[in-house]
Amino acid sequence: MTYSNFAAWRDRKLTETPDVSVVIPAYDERDRIVPTIGAISAHLCSSGLTWELIVSDDGSGDGTADLVRSLRLANASVLEPGVNRGKGAAVRDGVIAAAGRCILFTDADMSTPIEEFDRLFEAITRGAGIAVASRAADGAEERGRGYGRTVLSAALRGGVRRATGVRVKDTQCGFKLFTRESAHALFQAARVDGFSFDLEILWLAQRWGLEVAEVPVRWFEAPGSKVRAGRESLRFLGDVAALRYRDIRGAYSSHRIAEAIA
């Protein structure tokens, strides 16, 4: 993958609201952000949709943000607060800044290939407010994950569903598509800065009565994953407890989806 791959896109500056905004949260992703942007560019340019890219840097120390800026892509922007706050905060910043009619967030490792966007986009066009890529839905394909992590993931999914009542089977897959109205309302209400922000978003969506489509996708374990299963599992369980506590204390009560998307 070389910079010349982006030549056809460099001058495609948007003059109207894009059909799709793509938000990539990034923490020390210098080694793979260029191939990821290249794959997204190739697929969406062939789709006929207009789009923008937002890389939301989460305090990277490896020059990720500078590398993206050096590509000089007309439809790309970089958000760089300069501190590491967590994946949830990075996604939230990117989503709130996004202007597209639909907003996709995707992990930088592309464990879910960008081609799976088409399945999620179809669900949105059928009326869903959110389309969630799922490794647990019937028809999904999951490869490369070790046995231990597979068992731990399944156990966590079951525990989360019992603890929160969220009906989505796979809350944590890093590939989700929203209508702009749903995305802005949900992320403006969100409080979780860390790994489990997806759960909070889906819990709010269910509480507000938004239609959520769970879409089976292909998913491949990416080399060099920054997720540490044991540590993140403990944090995740703590965030579940914090979510319930904030709800009891009324932290979400001032947000009304009907007003937010009117």
UniProtKB/TrEMBL annotation:
CDD domains to which the protein is assigned, alphabetical: DPG_synthase (cd04188)
EC numbers: 2.4.1.117
GO molecular function: dolichyl-phosphate beta-glucosyltransferase activity
GO biological process: protein N-linked glycosylation
Domain named Glycosyltransferase 2-like: residues: 21-185
UniProt xrefs under Gene3D superfamilies: Spore Coat Polysaccharide Biosynthesis Protein SpsA, Chain A
InterPro entries in the record: DPG_synthase, Glyco_trans_2-like, Nucleotide-diphossugar_trans
Record membrane topology: Single-pass membrane protein
Family classification: Belongs to the glycosyltransferase 2 family.
Record protein name field: dolichyl-phosphate beta-glucosyltransferase
